[in-house]
Amino acid sequence: MPFASAPPIPLPADWRDFLSLTKPRVMSLVVFTGLCGMLAAPISVNPVLGFVAILCIAVGAGGSGALNQWWEADLDAKMKRTKDRPLPAGRMEPTAARDFGLVLSIGSVLVMGLAVGWLAAAILALSIVYYAVIYTIWLKPRTPQNIVIGGGAGAFPPMIGWIAATGDITLMPVLLFAIIFFWTPPHFWALALFVETDYAAAGVPMMPVVAGHHSTRRQILVYSVLLLPIAMAPFLLALTGWIYGLSALVLGTAFLFLSLKVATFRNAANDADMRAEKRLFAFSVIYLFALFGALVADRLILGVSA
Amino acid sequence: MTEPDPMEQRRRIICGRNAALGLVLLALVVLFFAITIVKRMA
After folding, report:
1. What residues in B contact A13, CB-CB < 8 Å?
2. What predicted TM-score, i.e. pTM, was given to this entire model?
């Protein structure tokens, strides 16, 4: 029976699998912060070129996400959260994911350069290399500080949005970069605390796996304390108006309060279900959306801009 | 219920991929036209 023993021909990857390679949920945050950076800039950009810039930021993020999934397919297969992704689930050839990521990454940089400007394209290229190479290949498997340094990759979009509008790097986009840079460790470590078993199984040296819960919680608090003055800095330096200043103060205080709960108020019930960590993680996403929303509101309502 | 025919499933997936690729290429053409018009007007 020669036909019975022949292996079944695997089905080709669906277009939805290619879409999921781009990490659409991460992309939504990237698009939002990039758009806010652009809208908060003092120079308004042509709507078509603005759309192209945001599209390039989104596609570049998608390309680096695909390259990340191509490189980490073996790790993803070991984690409950990621084992159903197209590569570990066997629905896609690794080379297809790699080529897809490369086409999106190179294409987004070229279009950004030709349509918007080469400074914005250079920063976009830097952010892609930072995420796909420096973070994914170099830092993530080697050091528990991976999130701290790798946080830079997610901090570029508002800077790119700003540069796309102005063609220039000033203090404000650097501060926007710093806000996301200091926001990233508490955000990811809160997640890492309640999915720690997954990271441990995959051998990823996330902070809770290497340094333990106590140290991670203390460091979450340290970064949250640092985040408050950094988020307030645009207002204190008179680069924004009171809408942003008040929002940064209220949101930052709430962030700090939730981090304090993660760092100090421990009891058996919370240790079991990680309620405080899950709450901080959920709030950190709201925090970023609200803070950048306030920045744009400030510019559009009060007309204040750096 | 009968099992879906693998050849039919394969055909459907490839059709979906081709349609998605076609839409992306069409969108790129429209986008490049729009960029060209804006750049020439500037």
Report:
1. 13, 17
2. 0.87
Which B residues, 4 through 33, put their C-beta within 8 Å of a C-beta on chain A?
6, 9-10, 13-14, 16-17, 19-20, 31
Tokens (6 digits) for A263 = 């760092």
Cβ contacts from A onto B, under 8 A = 36
Q: Which domains does chain A have, with CATH numbers?
A: 18-168 (1.10.357.140), 170-306 (1.20.120)
Residue with tokens 């460091």: A219
At what angle are helices A47-71 and A146-166 packed, to 10 degrees?
A: 160
How far is Cα of residue A295 from the mean position of the Cα atoms in its chain? 19
Q: Rounded CA gap, A247 and B41, in Å? A: 39
Structure tokens at A220: 């979450």
Is the separation of the CB atoms in A124 and A1 below 8 Å? no
In tens, the pLDDT along A190-208 reads 988 887 667 777 888 888 8
ipTM over 0.85: no
Measure the CA–CA gap between A231 and A297, rounded to whole angstroms. 16
